[in-house]
């Protein structure tokens, strides 16, 4: 369970780092939207619905 969360969040973090690094120009709005989606996904993944 922890490794699956790590894979999902790790791949998302790598894409957040590689995307702006590989693009010719940095567009702020999509980057902020992606960061918000990643943060929301992390919050949902680390929330235990059984409790």
Short note summarizing the structure:
The protein has 51 residues and is mainly α. The chain contains two helices and no strands. It is elongated, with a radius of gyration of 13 Å.
Description:
This protein has one domain (2-45). Helix content is 76%, strand content 0%. The protein is built from two helices and no strands. The chain has helices at residues 2-22, 28-45.
The ordered H/E elements are HH
What is the average of the pLDDT values?
Answer: 86
Secondary-structure content class: mainly alpha
Total strand segments: 0
Q: What attributes does this structure have?
A:
single chain, 51 residues, mainly alpha, 2 helices
Layout of secondary structure:
Elements: H1 2-22, H2 28-45
